[in-house]
Amino acid sequence: MVYAVYVTQNASRLLRAIYEIVLHREWAQLADKCLMLCKMIDRRMWQSMSPLRQFRKMPDEIEKKIEKICPWERLYDLEADKIDELIRVAEVGQDHLQ
To answer: Which pTM does this prediction carry?
Structure first.
C-alpha cells in the first residue's frame, strides 16, 4: 500500500522530468505525448474520459453509459429528454443537465 502511494505521488514528477529531457532534445512528437501524459496523471483523468467525471453527484454507471454511447462534443446539442433516451434512465437528464 505504501509503495502505491509513493508511485502515485512521484509519477507526475518523473514524467515532467522526461518531458524536460525530450523538450531539451527538441523531439516535438514525443514532447507532445509526454505533456499529455503529465496532464492526465496530474488531473487523474485520462484523455478518453469525458469531463462529466468531474461532477461527483453523477453516478458512475451513468457516466460510463454516456461515454460509451455519445461523444462529449455531441452532448452540447442534446436536450434533456434526448439524454434520457440515450442512457435509458428516467428523469436523470433533467437533474444532471443543469
So the answer is: 0.57
